[in-house]
Amino acid sequence: MKIASLIAGISAVALYLLCFQLKSARKIIACKLISSVLYVLQYVLLGAFVGAAMDASAVVTSYLALKKDTSLIKKYRIPILILLHAGIVAIGLVLYENPFSLLPIAGVLFESAAGWMKTEKSIRIVSLFAVPCWLVYNFISGAYGSAVGSILALISIISA
Question: Which of 18, 111, 112, 137 is the most buried (most CB within 10 A)?
């Protein structure tokens, strides 16, 4: 299981790093969505269920962010965002294990907010706040490949 989780984590990291080098907001969000699916797999294999649940939430928020220009989502944007963020917090609190389990909640809230931004620069800046949250959680949960990836993501976001 450790090797499988490491492979999933490294693959997720590679895609996540690629995201911030892409030139369109839509491509960044789509790449982050695929990366989140791999992160969920990694955390499930490690038994880090708060991380898995938060990355599963990130999949949902990324998908909706990709569809943010559809008429239904445009019409109900604010209620959708409130429900999404309330759901993320509720799921995180239900799965609460210790103070460190609050970090993925914050990380996903920042990532979710970033997905609804209009410019690539805004997405990168807001995503920057998510990285330290995930970095600490990854070390605590034993997701060392992802921890290294968080450091690389920080460098990637800053350089982009």
Answer: 111
Type of residue numbered 23:
K
Closest by Cα among 51, 155, 153 to 100: 51
Task: Please name the residue that has the structure tokens 């030139």.
Answer: 23
In angstroms, the CA 151 to CA 54 distance is: 19
Give the span between the Cα atoms of 145 and 6, in whole angstroms.
Answer: 6
Could you give the CA distance from residue 155 to residue 54 in angstroms, rounded to a whole number?
23
Q: How far is CA 160 from CA 66, 82, 122, 124, in A?
A: 21, 30, 12, 8
Q: Is the pLDDT of residue 88 over 80?
A: yes
Query: Global pTM?
Result: 0.81
The angle that helices 2-19 and 144-159 make with each other, rounded to 10 degrees, is 10
CA distance 76 to 89: 20
Find the mean pLDDT for residues 134-153.
87
CA dist 20 and 98 (Å) reads: 31
Residues 6, 28: contact at Cβ < 8 Å?
Answer: no
More confident residue, 16 or 112: 112
